[in-house]
Write a structure and sequence with these properties.
Radius of gyration: 16 Å
Shape: globular
Structural class: mainly beta
Number of helices: 1
Helix content: under 10%
Number of strands: 6
Strand order of the largest sheet: 1-2
Distance between the termini: 31 Å
Length: 117
């Protein structure tokens, strides 16, 4: 995801957990795109409200999220680069690090509308 050589200008979102929605509604790129209505029509568009795709301010999350850093998945080149992160206690992770099991519901992080500032 670059505009020109050696200049990154994109982020690939692979999954999201959403308050008050089924835990795996956006667990993986295809489900995330389906949930938000993202299609090929969005390719090459700038992120803006006018284009129907934008980023909003992130709510502050006050508890320990235990972020797991791992290698990339679903690609053929640069698979060994540790450029992938996920919240260990989220049940919305599409592919977990080897040995990292999906947490039981009682131990899982569940997004809440109260996680805001």
């Amino acid at each position: 995801m670059t505009k020109h050589s050696d200049y990154a200008n994109g982020v690939l979102l692979r999954a999201l957990a959403l308050p008050n929605e089924p835990e795996r509604i956006a667990a993986g790129p295809a489900l995330l795109a389906k949930r938000f209505g993202i299609t090929r029509a969005h390719d090459s568009l700038q992120i803006s409200r006018e284009n129907g795709l934008w980023l909003a301010k992130q709510p502050s999350i006050k508890n320990n999220l235990n972020i797991v850093n791992t290698t990339r998945v679903g690609i053929s080149q640069a698979k060994d680069l540790p450029w992938r992160w996920y919240m260990q206690y989220s049940r919305s992770v599409s592919k977990r690090e080897k040995g990292d099991k999906t947490p039981e519901l009682a131990n899982a992080w569940i997004p809440s509308t109260n996680d805001g500032p």
